[in-house]
Amino acid sequence: MTNSAVTGTGLRVVRGGRDVLRGVGFAIPRGSVTGLLGPSGCGKTTLMRAVVGVQNVAEGTVEVLGRPAGHPDLRARVGYATQNPAVYADLTVAECLRYFAAVLGAPAHDVDRVLAEVDLADRAAQLVGSLSGGQRGRASLAVALLGEPELLVLDEPTVGLDPVLREDLWALFHRLAAAGTALVVSSHVMDEAARCDRLLFMREGHVLADDTPDGLRAKTGEQDLEQAFLRLARAAA
Ligand SMILES: Nc1ncnc2c1ncn2[C@@H]1O[C@H](COP(=O)(O)OP(=O)(O)OP(=O)(O)O)[C@@H](O)[C@H]1O
């Protein structure tokens, strides 16, 4: 079995008549947290959509857990939390999670586990519509964790969270990775880069680098990963 949960090859995506992914190649290993970093609009969400199989692709391939992205066998094996929380405002948090657990074929007791993991156990009986933005984001993350998927694709999961919660979520991501899960986590905040095991640096539809934080420091001679990104971006310009 290959160590890559995801392999993208020559991936080109056109949106709104423009090339937004320009023939990118990348790998997302199992058992680690891969950070997808780059400025707003560089194509992070589009790449994630291609990985979960909801994006029309003009050229190239994406293989996920040994199947083409979007294959029906992958439905319960891949968790995806979109940037906009995908939860029902008129259900309570617990009702919403029980609904998605049933859809995914996850055991009902999984609801308590994921609520504890995102620190929302005390909100189980509250209507989703009355949660704060950050709490709603965590409820959406809890949905993605149901059924213990082998691959987790998380689009900006820490946006709007206070430092304590951000710390807790990164600890959760690393616990899941240690148990073998492949995680890909997008952010446009460079200070999250150092928390990742691997980094995919993106800019204008290209992958500038696919390496470990230390590998990128060595390659660029910059200790600070934001500076490393800027150096790579300038070299590519
Ligand atoms: N539905 C769409 N129709 C046309 N163009 C789109 C659509 N969605 C995104 N785009 C364009 O595709 C490009 C990549 O967008 P994408 O959402 O992948 O970027 P991103 O890196 O995730 O940005 P952000 O960090 O702001 O979320 C952008 O130029 C965007 O304007």
Automatic annotation (TrEMBL):
Domain ABC transporter: 6-229
Top-level taxon: Bacteria
Protein name: ABC-2 type transport system ATP-binding protein
CDD domains registered for this protein in UniProt: ABC_DR_subfamily_A
UniProt lineage: Bacteria, Bacillati, Actinomycetota, Actinomycetes, Pseudonocardiales
One Gene Ontology molecular-function label: ATP hydrolysis activity
Keywords, alphabetical: ATP-binding, Nucleotide-binding
SMART domains: AAA
Protein's UniProt keywords contain Glycosyltransferase: no
